[in-house]
Sequence to fold (229 residues):
Amino acid sequence: AQSVTQLGSHVSVSEGALVLLRCNYSSSVPPYLFWYVQYPNQGLQLLLKYTTGATLVKGINGFEAEFKKSETSFHLTKPSAHMSDAAEYFCAVSAQTGGFKTIFGAGTRLFVKA
Amino acid sequence: ETGVTQSPTHLIKTRGQQVTLRCSSQSGHNTVSWYQQALGQGPQFIFQYYREEENGRGNFPPRFSGLQFPNYSSELNVNALELDDSALYLCASSQSPGSEYNEQFFGPGTRLTVL
Fold:
């Protein structure tokens, strides 16, 4: 079975500061890991994903995440926050075990202060 | 290329009623997944349809059912509505299920309120 824990339901940063959103996962088989962003009244948009290969994954809008198997983590970072980054972020895990099923974390709301 | 669309955008029902939500998948996609997102929570997987057959189901009771049509659009039906069914229902389409290259494209959702 797979599960996802996002540490911190709310994160607040100043514009230009580092963004760090934490995600830990549990999976009995090699996982596929995702980060999605959700703006108000919209669906989810894929930021980046890890499947196999390079553990540092670069996504859209300057975001990146590093898969660390030993720590079962997949934290999302961005060197410099922009006001437009304010949104809800979801970490998700899936694995090919009897069908494709994506498990989402509870989400982290990012606030960006001017 | 048209993205994933859902209808209606908002819906208000009363307890015990039945509701049907609709989803049009993105062009070229044959797989549709449905998720329930309660307020302040992450999306929870309801079920997935692949080529008109159910291809996996989450921990939802049988009163949640679905259909996929030959054009790969899909419906989510919920019978005997309960207050806890109030949520944003998201539909996502993909080119295939279970591939590591699979990416799900989400629609904007249907906001269901049960009174």
In short: Chain A has a mean pLDDT of 91. Chain A touches chain B at residues 4, 32, 36, 41-46, 49, 51-52, 90, 92, 96, 98-107 (CB under 8 Å). The two ends of chain A are 41 Å apart (CA to CA).
